[in-house]
Amino acid sequence: MDYSADMKNFFARLVLIVLAVAANRVVAAVEFVDDDSLRRMLQHHLEQLNASTNKVSLATLQSQLDRTGAVVRIARAASRQREWPEVFSRVRNSVFIIGELYKCKKCHSWHVNTASGFVISADGALVTNHHVIRDSEGAVIGAMNAAGEFFPIKEVLADSRREDIAIVRLDGANFEPLPLLADKPVGSPVAVLSHPDKSFYSLTSGIISRYSLERVSEQSHTRRHTLVITADYAKGSSGAPVFDNCGNVVGLASSTESVYYSEDHGKQENLQQVFKFCVPAGCVLDLIRER
User: Fold this and answer.
1) How far is CA 70 from CA 169, 179, 194, 279, in A?
2) CATH of domain 189-290
3) pLDDT at 259
């Protein structure tokens, strides 16, 4: 009997078993985001909210814009640096999907637009962009976390049209607040946790590229403070937190601007760079009166 051949076969099978177990452990160690399920849950929650008799309509929230001086108890900034996987696991429960329920002009069905936001106090003060509230044309708006828990937005605490910030209050309690940190230096590593095009809880990383003053619009001489980063984000990321590697929020995603090399008959061609304009955390702190 050829024992050496049997031993070779035994060890070959053993290696395959070990590899299979290791592969299963890798799959079990990560969580696969079910975008369709989260979207359906969000729409269900929003439709229930819209059917409620004590809802706060989107129009009511929009009428509260231009408030100043939110009274918020904010968390203390962290100082210990962490690897991005640890930062992600620590901040994920504090980042929310903001959903707006609306009807389009092509059908009679309800649809959902999504944006991003994050909580800064245990009693539900949430930060997003001013344009997320102002530009919505739906019936109601609310926020859902990664576990599918839904919280209506019940009031606007403060906002800035110029800096594109809105601080709102969620109808809930015992949230996990994220700390704010101003003036992180250029070149510092940062990450964004957002929901680009309904790809929920997408983490990207980069650095702080620059701080600048930008015109609010081409027709306006009013300028706003901007934090420019290299981490990617896209539509649906508005209001998302920009983190440093300690887990502090140093800004929030606001807008993008694409730079093309040429233009032919009014059509821009040869994309070169996309600027990622964010709101510096210091501008958010300027709207807050701490308790």
Assistant:
1) 10, 16, 24, 17
2) 2.40.10.10
3) 94
- Asked if the domains at 35-77+92-170 and 189-290 fall in one CATH topology, the answer is yes
Distance CA 101, CA 111 (A): 6
What span, in angstroms and rounded, lies between the C-alpha atoms of 128 and 132?
Answer: 7
pLDDT digits 0-9 by tens, 10-45: 555 655 555 555 545 544 478 899 999 999 999 999
Structure tokens of 270?
């040869």
Helices (H), 150-267: none
Q: Which amino acid is at 171?
A: D
- State the distance between the two ends of the chain, measured CA to CA, in whole angstroms: 83
CATH class of domain segment(s) 35-77+92-170:
mainly beta
> Which tokens is 156 given?
């606007």
Q: Give the pLDDT confidence of 226-254 residue by residue, as tens digits.
A: 999 999 999 999 999 999 999 999 999 99
